From TrEMBL:
Superkingdom, taxonomy of origin: Eukaryota
Domain Mab-21-like HhH/H2TH-like: 246-343
Similarity comment: Belongs to the mab-21 family.
Gene3D superfamilies hit by this protein: 1.10.1410.40, 3.30.460.90
BP GO annotations: eye development
Protein name per its UniProtKB record: Protein mab-21-like 2
Major localisation: cytoplasm
Keywords: Cytoplasm, Developmental protein, Nucleus
Places the protein is found: Cytoplasm; Nucleus
Protein species of origin: Charadrius vociferus (Killdeer)
Amino acid sequence: MIAAQAKLVYQLNKYYTERCQARKAAIAKTIREVCKVVSDVLKEVEVQEPRFISSLSEIDARYEGLEVISPTEFEVVLYLNQMGVFNFVDDGSLPGCAVLKRSDGRKRSMSLWVEFITASGYLSARKIRSRFQTLVAQAVDKCSYRDVVKMIADTSEVKLRIRERYVVQITPAFKCTGIWPRSAAQWPMPHIPWPGPNRVAEVKAEGFNLLSKECYSLTGKQSSAESDAWVLQFGEAENRLLMGGCRNKCLSVLKTLRDRHLELPGQPLNNYHMKTLLLYECEKHPRETDWDEACLGDRLNGILLQLISCLQCRRCPHYFLPNLDLFQGKPHSALESAAKQTWRLAREILTNPKSLDKL
């Protein structure tokens, strides 16, 4: 048993060195190329409208605010200033979303974003995005990369196609620190020892983002109140939880396997599903020793089996917001074929670790 486990870990480390590192290097090169173009567009936007200040910056060879969705798809979060005059209202009526309401006693005119406040006092995510979309469209025509960048039409999101190869979504957002959403109040579960009180305090202090984008739970039934809502996002908090042990290595292997074998019609699976299931696996295995290098194979198998179960049940709850289903709106047939393909993958890795050489 131990010999089989050691063989799997050896093959996974080899896979990590050969496949995952190559994927990382290729993506890093793409990111540099993409960020040059995006920075240029955002500089142009800022000239037209100083309230939209580019917050895309490189820190230790990582771009702050950039999320890799897949090797050809990225999201850049553009942090806006001055959320302070609004109250954060999160009553759970819109899973995964919250609204920003003008503080009582504050005059409308005191807000930097006055023309985006609705009659009922809400700061409209949709109105801000619509204005931003117009500015980006104008900036694309003026910027020095105009030959290689186009706006993607037919969407309320701000999406650019770069060199006909890459798609970048630019999402206006507010950073919320020092508060924690009520809809995530059940975290951490009292009976689960991971991640421990100190890490919990750090994560909650890290806070979350409010993004102006279409919400999972709202597609197809947006009333005006709902389209004014902001989407909750916990990227930094999640990254903090995944520090230590072989967690990030495990995530890297999962992302590489997904890119190579689970990029399926109907796009049932993205890297965020992998990250979510890794967080649940951390709860199931709360001891740090469970995340030693020697356990990499066991953890990976556990996550792949959990993924199959989620795909078969057609439900994958968000880690912090369990009422939000990350498979919502995905075609059932796509989830079914992803379950079969994940099962083939898991069986292959478990019964024949050497197959990783070909995967």
